[in-house]
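look at this record:
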Amino acid sequence: MVSPPPHGMNRYRASVSYDGGPFHGFAENPDVETVAGKLRESLEKIIGHEIHLTCAGRTDAGVHAEGQVISFDAETFDIEKIERSLNKLCAPFITVRDLQKTDDLFSARFSATCRTYRYRILNDDYPDPFSHRFAWYIQTQLDLDGMHRAAQAVVGEHDFSSFCRKASILVDGKEKEVSLIREVISITVKNEGPFVEIWVTATSFCHQMVRSIVGTLVAIGKGRLNKSDVSSIISKKDRNSAGPVAPPQGLTLMEVGY
């Protein structure tokens, strides 16, 4: 249930891009710099009152975003002036654009219908000093057709326990495991010059899900796993059955659908 803004306040939304390298993830964490922490502190400094941010997807440390979406409540302000000031304070690693007043019941998280991530792999004979912050370098030539065909097994609604870190919540003082059932809408593996790009769209993702899928597909691309193994890995619901977690720097949250 999404509550409307407090009396006298409006709800705002914005698109956010960031280089996740310098940050310890999106979500605020004591004693370390995070994307949410930088945004909140900057907004509070400009607007002059406490801000609570909601985001579409809490990216991990080192993961980037081109199309992250945030929402927050604030007193009426000059949007263009606040956007300019916010970008000055958050530069060079965070950019805020398309700041606008939105519907009172809009939530960057709960109003979202899907999220799209892209994972980039530099698959070349030589590393590239200008892309190492945004791609996983793999010298071994990958079987892209085999990876793409194997990837189709994750499309649909499945229990992704084999690809996600288990999580729990407290219910009536007792720990209860969070469901890891998710629906993947599409996944593609394609070549873009020296880069391999893996695009995944799902209604939502669990922790490290995309990076675990990528690590498994890379194992298939190297011939270490069979193309038919993905369905078996899903059915086992065992994290040890899947490939390794791909490093964070290749992952970018590209778009959120509403």
User: Anything to note?
Assistant: Residues 122 and 131 are 8 Å apart (CA to CA). The mean pLDDT is 95. Residues 10-101 form a domain with the Alpha-Beta Plaits fold (CATH 3.30.70.580).
